[in-house]
Amino acid sequence: MGLSMGLALLTLSQPAFAADPQPLEHRPWLEIDLPYDLSVTGVSLALWLVPELAKDHILPADCRWCDTKSSLNAFDAGARSAFAPVDRHASSVASDVMAFGVTPLLALGLGAWAALDAPRMHLARRLGVDLLIVAESVTTAMSMNQMVKMAVRRRRPGGLDDPTGEERTVDGNLSFFSGHATFAFALATSAGMVATIRRSRLAPAIWTVGFALATSTALLRVAADKHFATDTLAGAAVGSIIGCLVPLLHRTRAGIKLTGGEIPHGAMVGVSGRF
Fold this sequence. Notes:
The chain is mainly alpha-helical and 275 residues long. It has 9 helices and 4 strands. The chain has helices at residues 2-12, 34-58, 74-82, 88-114, 123-152, 158-161, 179-197, 203-223, 229-249, and strands at 29-30, 251-252, 257-263, 266-272. The longest helix is centred in the middle third of the chain and has 30 residues, at 123-152. The two termini are 26 Å apart.
């Protein structure tokens, strides 16, 4: 699922971490506007966590997108059936550990190791910049995830078997799209993009390990019966897209230009660049 997406991104970015004849200080770099990027990260973090803490008080305990066994699409029904024999509780615990423990430790650990490629005098600054860009990517993705979940209010898979019981809660109606998958893929992709832009020799390892862990997280969420397969696919897509875009927006010395001009009865804006 997400692993194939990761391998595709890894293939497309191969020239970026091939042998680079340029001196390190002349390679494409990552720059931040500290007040702006801290503000974006802080606001995104608040938009993610504050509604999470207040959801029981601001949302009704009923679903807006209420699948039943008869109305569930064939893809989600088939995926749920395939994971039916798996221990749901163990899968749920494992997905929590994988998404919020193992993936951050390995992705950020490899990213810190990759920073050692930089000159020593730039190491502390590079670490700070890289971590802020990854944090901005993850919080942006998660704030979007939170808003969509609360607007859509899709009933979790457990509600198919117990439509009047435990799943009829606020949290039981926040299935689309998966926060665990969004978090894991945003983290893996942004860490991989940062390493790729830095021309790090560890970039292939960061992409491979990150996407393997993120894919495992998504599969475990389906096995735990916490999300439908389409929930995790949407989370993987959103996390990956934002995880790619945010680091690219911080890339410098890449020949990116924004041009604008007037034409009769309208306006014209064009973007051109070399990546």
